[in-house]
Amino acid sequence: MDVLILGGTTKARQLATRLVDDGIDLCTSLAGRTKSPRPVPGPTRLGGFGGVGGLKDFLTANEVKVMVDASHPFAATMHGHAAQACLDLNLPLARLAPPSWRTQPEAATWHWVDDHDAAARVLADLPDVVLLTVGRQPISHYLCLGPRRVIVRCVDAPEEELPEGWTVLQERGPFTMAREREIFSEGVATVVSKDSGGTELDPKLRLAAETDVQIVMVSRGPAPGWGDELSEVDEAVQWINAHLATVKSQ
């Protein structure tokens, strides 16, 4: 196998599309945390590897030449396992992720926090309605808010029993500005988001800036020490081709 992509993101699907079109032998690995993931071009696998050891076994058994970690910027465990496995095997690794939103001018006005527990503490002093856009997995960190007016937006419904006054919107992005205006019209005064990043703000963040809605932004963790950091699919394609050419010339 030429390339293993750790997928589940838009950039991962875009990269897989490019590589399939180029005839490159690849597989995209999906964590399986979303019940109905979007289809991905080319071969895929579903589920975890069983830690660093399991990932190393997969890479070795399939003679993977390079790996691209294009999983979500907040998939910290997967990032760590990928870096350690590739370091142990001396395998080329690239992380493909959008740039942080920290460089956007509006970011200076946001409440930046290190994790979801810190976000919940900050929310104690911010107004309702609170729009949680952090996915379903971190919801347990916010249950301490109790019976406040909270809207949870996620693809799959949370497993936890939610406090009185909470509403769940099961929706999958990307979201249009028109849809965000509909949601904000419910009285949204505070938005909680993760620094998924991009070259521009997504619609909810642009709308928040227009309407003085408060933003609580959960920061990304530090990048693992092994691998190259890339932000564009074109960069990833060039990186893959360069490494594959080196491998085949040896």
From TrEMBL:
Highest taxon of the lineage: Bacteria
EC number: 1.3.1.106
GO terms, molecular function: precorrin-6A reductase activity
Pfam families the record matches: CbiJ
Class in the EC hierarchy, top level: oxidoreductase
Keyword terms of this UniProt record: Cobalamin biosynthesis, Oxidoreductase
Record pathway: Cofactor biosynthesis; adenosylcobalamin biosynthesis
One example of a Gene Ontology biological process annotation: cobalamin biosynthetic process
UniProt keyword annotation of NADP present: no
Protein name (record): Cobalt-precorrin-6A reductase
Lineage: Bacteria, Bacillati, Actinomycetota, Actinomycetes, Propionibacteriales
